[in-house]
Here is the input.
Amino acid sequence: MTSAHSIASSPRYAPLEPRACSAALMIADDAGMAAIDALIGQNPELGRKATILRIGATAPPDTLPAALDGALSQARMGLQVWLAGSQGLIARAQALLLAAGLPKGAIQSEHRGTAARRMQCVHCKTLAEGVTTDPYTCPGCGRALFVRDHFSARLGAFQGVCIDAETPGDIPEPQELRL
Amino acid sequence: MTITFNKESFRGDYSYHNSATAIRRFPFPFDRDEYMYSVNMEPHKGGRPGSVFEARFDVDEHYVAEMEDRAITLSRDPMRCQSLPHMTLAGWDVLELIMTSKAQDYPDLFELHRDGNRWRWVNRPLGIDDTFTFLDETTLPYGPMEYITRQTQGDFAVLDQREGNLWMDAGMVTSQADWSLDFDIGMNFFEWHAPVPRAAEMGIFQRALKFLLNIQQDTPARRLNWTMTVNPRLDTSPETYPEWGPEKRSLTPENLGQKQYLRVELQSFWRLPRSNGLLFPIRCYLISLQDLVTVPKWGRRFHRVIRDLPEDLATYKGFIVNRPMIVDYLSRFDDGAPTSPGIWPD
Amino acid sequence: MIQLRLTDKTPLSPRITRFRFQHPDGAPLPVFSGGAHVMVEMQDGDILRRNAYSLISDPQDGSGYEIAVQREDQGRGGSRFMHEQAQPGMLMRLGQPVNLFGLNLTARKHLLIAGGVGITPFLGQIPELDRLGADYELRYCVRSRDEVAVDLPGAQLHVSDEGSRMDLDGVLGAQPIGTHLYVCGSARMIAAVLDRATALGWPPDALHSEEFLAPAPGEPFDVHCARSHKTLTVGAHQSMLEALEAAGIDAPWLCRGGACGQCETDVLACDGQIDHRDHWLHDDERNRKIMPCVSRFRGQLLTIDR
Ligand code: FES
Here is the structure.
């Protein structure tokens, strides 16, 4: 089955580590908060400096762009960012941060929670959040898409490719994605 | 040199065809009877007269038809040509390199007249005669990279060099072997090569990157790569896979010689002086197996290469399902005789 | 390598002199990108030197190449040669422009910090930044006013013996997200700036530096070249690369300053201590590789794969 760590474009997640910084921004969902807590446990000073954006029931993922705009409006170089949670949250936050000009080297991420992925359909370009099976059905064009390990940091998504292009209708049974 | 341009298509009725001359000059990529992924780089400084290596940007009988096919693909999907905002200067580098090279290498087809930054470009085969201001985008109908690559055969990746890596930050990609510029744009060298099997473990990309980072203005390099395509189709992109995927299953022993094509990429690498970027043209040549086997050496060798290719490479190159049929077809042209070294016909 | 005529030699400060080269026939030279350097070949007695100098003229101007050379009396002699023996009218050989210190054009802003003669690569970058309309901040740090080689209206000048030293933390702390930092100057200055930036949370991918790593002199030593079956003595004022070239042994190179990786050479045997002076090899490679353009050796025997 597919696993997220097999090829060079796949995102690499490492346990979050404290790093010297002038300002700290942490973004996590419910599952990711444990990683943030562990990070702050290692370095309580960091916790006192940090702005924490928690994505969850009260602040759904769609609030992320506006929240990040706010957090970055006064930011200066020296800001370090820690991301923790689902692959989709990490990818979205990272894509927004990169688009704002933050170098990748200032961003760390740790995957927590489910194996769900954020996918882009290569045919109709629709983004699908929280995809849990391979193949999955594209919410845009309805095609059955194979979950490819190829990942674009700019889009914050893995690539979905039509699984039955050569043999239309021949679609294998969807399998749960695993970590 | 006069070239008669073919009237032909790369889709629909697939009327693409190679003349006898085009067959003889086809860049057959195997210099021995087996294939292993390697970087096999050599200086791109001319080559045998008449060969595809002779000019810096080869123009052949398919030129006009290929440019028409590119225009169709772009009108359906404009995202096949993209340039991230910091790549405009590199785009001018590309335009300058191609215009000066073509005007020198094909004076009967192209002319470039420069008066300071006032440039006049004449492209006879496509009927273009434009005057514009170099480094001023508003004086061209497209961005500089798009403008010139709408007039140049092959795909183009324009790479930015920074952090000791190369970043695919601009490109014109309408005749690709199943990769998506729209998805890969912004990736570094290792990321966009991630789907290639084996090579990563072998450390090939580390060495290749080091080589490419050190390419200088006066030392362009080239290599050949290859894959297989059913029908002479340029646009085998992942975007349009549902259109061409079914064609891969349309091979029969009877139509194989005519429908199965060897697709060879002449890749070259150029340092761009103003931007310090790197231009990576990927020029595609297509030949049907029935034309290929008219050169006996190529028929023998290609049979041996395809028969012995490791499974994962055949899968990556997209012809694993058709391999038995292809081997069967090619075996008819392999009498077991030894082949001479090198790529050229005997 | 192309042969060019030295057409002009102008002192810019007591120690720094500008040299202009043009094609002998007046033909245009290849344009380049800001931050590029050229290799200048000097026949200094019986030693053939090749030293790298940043191009300081406008990169888009192919009418000539200009470099600025600071006289280093403690150096191996290249700068002395340029100051004393190079004279207008002379023909000299120069390499193609090579850029190992290019601007990162994805940056939102460029912070350029120059120490002394480290201003030179930025002189090629400023016209480029101006043309692009890019946001930049140039800090030019010198010890005393007579070190100033160029008058730069856009720069903030810091003269330490006049008490106007740069407030490094203040400068680093005031940069918007997406700023890239470039520093060029002495090894000590570069290390100080990069250390502070890192301590303040700047990521490595936003930090760029170029050190003028002229191969420093050292004790003479012997090296055995296994492939060519030759044993050479590297003189005190010679680099191992120069010794290889003098012996007719082919060795690749690009920067001759320990930065590009091109001259990387396998060490086959080593009984002694390699004095690694490059910025290229990783720590785990240092026991089996050497960069002959800058590094030296002390000990009994060094065998390399050349
Ligand atoms: S020549 Fe560049 S590291 Fe030695």
Remarks:
- Residues 120-132 of chain C form the longest helix (13 residues).
